[in-house]
Structure formats: C-alpha cells, structure tokens
Write a structure and sequence with these properties.
Number of domains: 1
Structural class: mainly alpha
Mean pLDDT: 92
Distance between the termini: 11 Å
Helix content: over 70%
Radius of gyration: 19 Å
Largest sheet: none
C-alpha cells in the first residue's frame, strides 16, 4: 500500500462521513436558523425555545435518513474489506 492508496481511502472516509452526518447536521442547521429568525422577528429571546424543535427534527431526520446512511457506510466498509483481501 502506497501513499496514493492511503490518500484515496482517507478521501473516501471523509466523503462517507459527510454523507452520513450531512443530512442530520443540515436539518439541525435549518431548524436552528428558522427558529432564530422567528425569535428575531417576535423579540422572544428564550434560550430553551430552540432545543425541543431541534431534538424532534434531528430525531426525525435520523429515522428518515438511516437507510441512506447505513447503505453508504456498509458499501464503504465492504470496499475496505475488498481492498484488505486483495492486499494479502
């Protein structure tokens, strides 16, 4: 295994991390931004107002995106196992 292989595996690893965590983080960001805009427009500055909707939306996003996340992680892992088999 040379440097190019290690860099390719690292690149694929970061891409899979973004695929798995991206939808969850994006949904949390969108809800947080929407609540911040609502708080700004209504002058309600309650700090705990953001937590409950974020928790609910992130939980729903995890349930909704779980098949996609698991598919990308399983495909990446199987690709790594195939590379390990071809090394030996």
């Amino acid at each position: 295994m040379n440097r190019v292989d290690v860099l390719n595996i690292s690149h694929e690893t970061f891409f899979v991390i973004l695929q798995a965590a991206g939808p969850i983080m994006a949904s949390g960001l969108a809800v947080g931004l929407a609540i911040a805009i609502i708080q700004t427009l209504t002058s309600i500055q309650e700090m705990t107002l953001t937590f409950v909707p974020k928790i609910i939306i992130i939980f729903a996003a995890v349930i909704f995106f779980m098949p996609f996340m698991m598919t990308s992680i399983i495909e990446f892992t199987q690709g790594l196992y195939d590379r390990i088999v071809h090394l030996g």
